[in-house]
Amino acid sequence: DTAVSQTPKYLVTQMGNDKSIKCEQNLGHDTMYWYKQDSKKFLKIMFSYNNKELIINETVPNRFSPKSPDKAHLNLHINSLELGDSAVYFCASSQGAPPEAFFGQGTRLTVV
Amino acid sequence: KNQVEQSPQSLIILEGKNCTLQCNYTVSPFSNLRWYKQDTGRGPVSLTIMTFSENTKSNGRYTATLDADTKQSSLHITASQLSDSASYICVVSLDSSNTGKLIFGQGTTLQVKP
Fold it and tell me: What is the pLDDT along chain A (112 residues), one digit of tens a residue?
């Protein structure tokens, strides 16, 4: 009965590879997000989608491309991975005003 | 620049003791402020939320305060337990809409020792 689920939980890959992280929410929320948490523990928003439409894109490199096939899914595809992409990526969903974000357990990406 | 700053960066207390975490923000326009708890290896979970018109909100042993004039918030934890060991993140929302942008602080890492 997990509310927001991400896969995989851990991802180790070499520089230059392309990888995807999947996210699904069963809360019926209209809005989904991707956040990046760096080594200093700052959480920064990357993208926000509302009903499958892109709302926020926070100057993320073009190598990152979110895909929302339906409002319950928001996947993150990363091309040509770089060392600096190593971080924990969190998916979240929200509903209501003010919105409360429900987070997934995170995907720890390590680029070697 | 919209920023949220928290202090202290880390804190160690003994089980059963109280503690207070601080959050200062320069976010404008301000809609609401939320405290999240993030256990190691998990996603953040919301503890409390306050709009600009509220100055205190409790959730069990957690009590948050908000001073919208000085743009400060605190999270007070009473009678700490080992399970309180986590990062506590202050999050400010720019607007109340469902797609509103959230500004995160860097968090305070709390360790509760027996």
Answer: 669 999 999 999 999 999 999 999 999 998 899 999 988 778 888 988 888 888 877 778 999 999 999 989 999 999 999 999 999 999 999 887 677 889 999 999 999 9
Note whether B98 contacts A48, CB cutoff 8 Å: no
Least Cα separation, residue A94 to chain B (angstroms): 7
Q: A42 and B98: CB-CB below 8 Å?
A: no
CA A50/CA A68 separation, integer angstroms: 10
Choose the mutation target among B9, B35, B36, B99 for the interface with A, i.e. most A CBs under 10 Å.
B99
